[in-house]
Design brief:
There is one protein chain. The chain contains 18 helices and 18 strands. The protein folds into 3 domains: about 160 residues, 2-Layer Sandwich (VC0802-like); about 220 residues, 3-Layer(aba) Sandwich (Rossmann fold), CATH 3.40.50.620; about 80 residues, Oxidized Rhodanese, domain 1. Helix 6 crosses helix 11, helix 8 packs antiparallel against helix 9 and helix 9 packs parallel to helix 10. The relative contact order is 0.10.
Length: about 475
């Protein structure tokens, strides 16, 4: 199979040195992707195109090329030799003559090099001979049923059998390295795709506030994004334990600015990690006005906490537009089943707080909180995440009734727990919010069995998985039967 790759228009208009660099990088990216997926092919670059030749599975090859940034389109082509217009006619008649019955057609010729005829002359000559020698419904140059296309070079011609659209944009790696704050929701995954499509090498940073199940889901989503759209480059997945920070925000910060303070901490930690990884910017999935922390004023407060530029590819998109694109990209299925922690950052957020008030509330947190979070960060090569995920998964027993002597631990945040207290007169109930449970569980009696509870059952399961992964086996999840 022969495929002719057309460059994205933004590459074609660059200066000669820049264009040459981008073409060379795109060629290498194609080689890397095909090699990673076990597809053998030769890849050669010219000034205005890249040719890919393979004797392997054409469907797999087409699928991979359609997901490589920097490719505007690519053409399935049959190559044949030629020396005269008769040769061109014979080659095209063999490939297209039988397709013309009952259909209108147009003949298109694209030439390279010096020829004794113009493209228009060749189109008239060859199209006329096809019309005369094969059954058809006539020539229609405006809206034909079939377009017969041939590209001509000295000594060889390409009959264009099919056209496929690519992603466009720039080759991955051409615009520098960035760090994307990834949550597992619809927004951040779509933002990451837009950044890599524009040529950025996208690393991922995840702030763990919901335990192991959430981290597993985000890892799987990031690996999917990388595997499908950016596997030409190695990137890193960084996990930052952030339960302690969330706990301090919930306990110490005024409810009106908890969301803004949380986002400021996230970008401050991410920018410090990004600088260590030699990244040039951060990427987030924020969209203007979507939630209270994404008003113009609050976004300005958040930006001021970062040492790196903060890029927001989705800033002017509606939520439905983002969800629709997530469906198209294939990340929606991850986001729809992503576990969410039960803690609410704020019931009554302030959409336009003053900078002084935000900074005063933020100052109530431990001064070395950010440093501890950066120090605790764990980085993995994205290729290692599938094996790592398998190591994180653990079986957790879920019950609707408890045995005598078992202790219930209510992991909800205090505000939620006080609004709807858990009543279970037959068992002892401990109130330990999820963000403190990891630190305090080791202080509990080891000869007791503890059943974790939260309203939705997600956080309790998440924390149970985390504790079992740390070697605590006297754990189960409690989901009382509904009346």
């Amino acid at each position: 199979m022969k495929l002719i790759i057309r460059l994205a228009p933004e590459i074609s208009v660059k200066s000669r040195p820049v264009r040459s660099r981008l073409i060379s990088l795109l060629r290498q990216n194609i080689r890397n992707v095909l090699s990673r997926h076990g597809l053998e092919a030769s890849v050669s670059a010219q000034w205005d195109k890249i040719e890919v030749s393979s004797a392997g599975n054409g469907t797999d090859l087409i699928g991979e090329l359609g997901r490589i940034p920097g490719i505007h389109s690519f053409l399935e082509a049959d190559e044949f030799p030629w020396g005269s217009l008769d040769d061109l006619y014979q080659g095209m008649a063999e490939r297209f003559g039988h397709r013309l019955a009952g259909k209108t057609f147009a003949f298109r010729v694209k030439r390279r090099g010096v020829n004794s005829f113009t493209s228009l002359e060749a189109e008239r000559e060859l199209g006329g001979r096809l019309q005369e020698n094969f059954p058809n419904a006539g020539v229609n140059l405006s809206h034909p049923d079939i377009t017969v296309r041939v590209e001509v070079e000295p000594g060889r011609a390409f009959a264009i059998m099919e056209t496929h659209l690519g992603l466009g944009g720039f080759p991955v790696g051409s615009q520098g390295e960035i760090l994307c704050l990834i949550s597992g929701g619809f927004d951040s995954a779509v933002a990451a795709f837009h950044a890599l499509r524009r040529g950025c090498r996208v690393n991922f940073v995840f702030f763990s506030m919901g335990g192991v199940a959430h981290e597993i889901g985000v890892m799987e989503e990031c690996h999917y994004l990388w595997e499908r759209y950016a596997s030409s480059h190695r990137v890193r997945f960084v996990t930052v334990p952030f339960e302690e920070a969330m706990g301090q925000i919930l306990e110490r910060v005024h409810h009106g600015v908890r969301g803004v303070v949380l986002k400021r901490l996230l970008v401050r930690v991410a920018s410090m990690i990004g600088l260590r990884l030699r990244c040039e910017a951060l990427v987030t999935g924020e969209s203007l006005g979507q939630v209270s922390s994404q008003t113009l004023r609050n976004l300005s407060h958040i930006d001021s906490a970062s040492e790196l530029m903060v890029m927001r590819p989705l800033i002017c998109l509606d939520k439905q537009q983002i969800v629709d694109e997530a469906v198209r990209l294939g990340t929606a299925s991850f986001s729809e089943r992503m576990p969410e922690y039960c803690g609410v950052v704020s019931d009554h957020p302030n959409v336009c707080p003053g900078r002084d008030f935000v900074e005063t509330e933020e100052a109530k947190l431990d001064p070395d909180l950010v440093g501890r979070a950066v120090h605790a960060a764990r980085a993995l090569d994205i290729r290692e995440t599938p094996a790592f995920v398998e190591g994180l998964k653990a079986e957790v027993e879920t019950v609707s009734a408890l045995h005598p002597g078992e202790v219930v631990i209510d992991v909800r945040v205090p505000d939620e727990e006080s609004r709807d207290p858990l009543a279970d007169p037959g068992h002892e109930i401990l109130k330990i919010p999820f963000y403190r449970l990891g630190r305090e569980f080791g202080k509990l009696r080891r000869d007791r069995v503890y059943a974790l509870y939260c309203a939705q059952g997600v956080m309790s399961e998440t924390m149970a998985m985390q504790l079992k992964g740390e070697g605590h086996h006297n754990i189960k999840v409690y989901r009382p039967a509904q009346d």
